[in-house]
Specification:
binds flavin mononucleotide; 12 helices; two-stranded antiparallel sheet; single chain
Amino acid sequence: MSEVPLFTPFKIKSKTLRNRIVLSPMCQYKALDGFISEWHLQHYSRFAFSGLGAAFIEATGVSPEGRIGHGCTGIWDENHIEGLSKIVKTFKEYNCISGIQLAHAGRKASFLRPWDGASPITKKDGNEPAWQTIGPSPIPINDSSPIPKEMTINDIEKVKSDFKKAAQRADKSGFEVIEIHGAHGYLLHSFFSPISNKRNDKYGGSFDNRIRFALETIAEVKSVWPENKPIFFRLSSIDTPGEGATIEDNVNLAKALKFAGVDVIDCSSGGITGSPVLTKSKIIPGFQVPYSEKIKNEANISSMAVGAIINPDQANDIILNKRADLVALGRELLADTQWVYKAATYFNLDNAKSFLPDSYSFYLSRRDDFLDRSAKPA
Ligand SMILES: Cc1cc2nc3c(=O)[nH]c(=O)nc-3n(C[C@H](O)[C@H](O)[C@H](O)COP(=O)(O)O)c2cc1C
């Protein structure tokens, strides 16, 4: 049969993803002091044998104060490596490229878990206390959010060094890819966005000044992250319609990131004024794909599309029409961990069962030998 673009391998640096389908990073809020829990081992192993090209572990704090909330995973301590490397081992066992998203939540840190309200922790939230958030300028997300501390140059240097050490630990844990979280209103994005950055020093004002923190962070990461391992960067392709950073600004950011050594741009959007996921407005399938297409073609860099990518034809068309090099799925994979196998079956791929673990594929093949699907059910 003819080639299905979604199922062609994707080579980037020394890594080859067996197909174009990637697990998008998704916080579980089930960690304790940054340490992964039994939940993470079970949750990620389900995706390890999902047939994915690659999978990203959730936004993982480069420092305790860089977490979104108390349940976030962390990578600020050498002792975090042991748990993280267990997840990596499972991914490797099933031929899934392992990735981790390194994050600092900035002024959107110190938040309650989504199911507890996804709002800033207050003094009333007792044994899980709030902490002082930081940002480019003392501008809160909204009227009910605390004012972040304006970061000094020392604070900026500390965060850059935290990202560097986090990248070192990610490498020690065995991760093959890292993604730097520069989207959704978190720290790096908040420096880029003119909505949240009103600084007068070399980190604020002009476009070049507002991208400086991200570029310097990448330089720190690159000083320790192996040259042959890829770096992804997630950005918010637009801030909010009619306000803040535009898609054109983000095309220019992507060009600068490429020059700085980023390999793939993961094209999300929004979040500078609230949650990009817990939105009240309607979204349509593939709503962020036009951003990925523009960034890929105008910045001439590999891109990953994400956001309401639901069915195999939709995903395949994105790759076929060169609107992205990779597709990241989040919630659809939560709903259906064997999405890849089902998509491969839908496209009649001879190797569809190779996207299942042996012990599953054996029994499904046996059933296929005997099952008459055209017969009327008894
Ligand atoms: C439970 C949940 C947790 C998420 N956590 C993260 C995260 O850690 N980092 C991130 O960049 N995006 C995060 N997101 C956003 C997803 O990665 C993805 O971009 C978004 O859900 C849109 O894709 P989807 O429609 O396929 O779910 C999260 C989304 C969900 C639903």
